[in-house]
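Hi Y.,

Following your request, here is the sequence exactly as I used it, all 369 residues.
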Amino acid sequence: MKSDTEYMQMAMELAAKGVGCVEPNPAVGCVIVKDGSVIGQGFHERFGEAHAEVNALADCGRNGHNPAGASLFVTLEPCSHTGKTPPCTQAVIDAKIANVAIASKDPTKLAGGGIETLRQAGIAVEVGLCQEEAEQLNAPFYKHSRTGMPWVVVKWAQSKDSYLARKNTGDEGNWISNKQSRADVHRLRKRMGAILTGIDTVIADNPQLTVRIEDETIERPPLRVVLDSGLRMPLDCNLITVPDAPTAVVTTAQTAQTEFAQVEKLQSAGAEVLAVPIREDHGDLKKTLSLLGARGIQQVLIEAGPTLITSFLNQNLVDEVQIYIAAITLGNNGTAPISEPMSTLNDCLELKNVRIDTFGTDIRVCGLL
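Below is the corresponding structure, written out as tokens. Let me know if you'd prefer a different format.
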């Protein structure tokens, strides 16, 4: 017979299946056990649809099992409010579950209260089993709930000799990464609330910054954010003319006042214009992230050039780094991904919880800062 920890780890593995499909909700998994056997399991599969507990209880029914008197293992405190779906606590109570083990409390004021609701119904509740792993799984959700700031991911693709391409024109021959890596980038983009770049990248590369996954409709496309302190945004660029996702241009408060005519042109073209204070002759990066967080955006992907990447790193605003390494050499035809050299080993970035995956001949290195 498995231990409680093993059952919770099973629930964690189920929860991971929802990453990329449920945002901005957290990924949640649930396992129901009776007389030493798993009688039902489920996870939150899609934003706006049934939560993990409800799916696990439905699985019990499909398997011909009665969950009354069973133990339920769930990675996040069951919700006790009515939102897009009914409260999960009531479903658990109605099923006559006897014991509930919860990995982590829900940090949001709206959704909290599930533990007390279950206890008042006479259900024995244990909290904190595998809590650290559960919070790591939903790190962006917890950071945003506790601080109001989004989780920031920096992504770049480089050659095996650690250079970026000078320019991406969209032509197949000018991509560093292979098709498998580029498909993975679109899966990464899908889980984001916003994709952020700089005006220099817009002018040089004219990117779309959209999520493009074959045979899949993107219901909640990430907001495309351009840092443009001088309002140089071309009105004929893809971020304006390709309407597949909303676009926000972030400039300084001073520029927004002095270049009001350009602000009106961008707004007329469908873009939103946001103004932030000046910091070091540019828009304040932390304030920009704070504005995005206030909109409920939990994750921001930085797809930019070396100067902007370096600025975010130097200001300690990055939580996660994803690097795609291609099996090609650029040499003098490339540029370094970080614009300022590290003078000592102490200045170097040290990634934690490193994961390495392969996509054909490409390698992806992911880690936390």
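The mean pLDDT is 92.

Thanks again,
Q.
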